[in-house]
């Protein structure tokens, strides 16, 4: 499986209403892309200082699924309608995952 993570920092003119519209559009887009096994998007809840304004997590089976998602007409439309003018900076990373692992460090017994 492939985990795709994207983070965005907005331009100063982006409003809360714009972010709400983007979130609604991304959620609808995700429902229309069958290659997406899991999808989550939303505003940074700012539990730590710094960071981006918004994030997206997409889980797909493989590179073909990632390409199908990112190259889909639905994704292109959301980009044209919203992201193209909202983004100041964007960062993305893709990670290989078995979809189940959770890293845990073993604590030595005292």
TrEMBL record:
Matching Pfam families: Dabb
Residues covered by the Stress-response A/B barrel domain: 2-95
Protein name: Dabb family protein
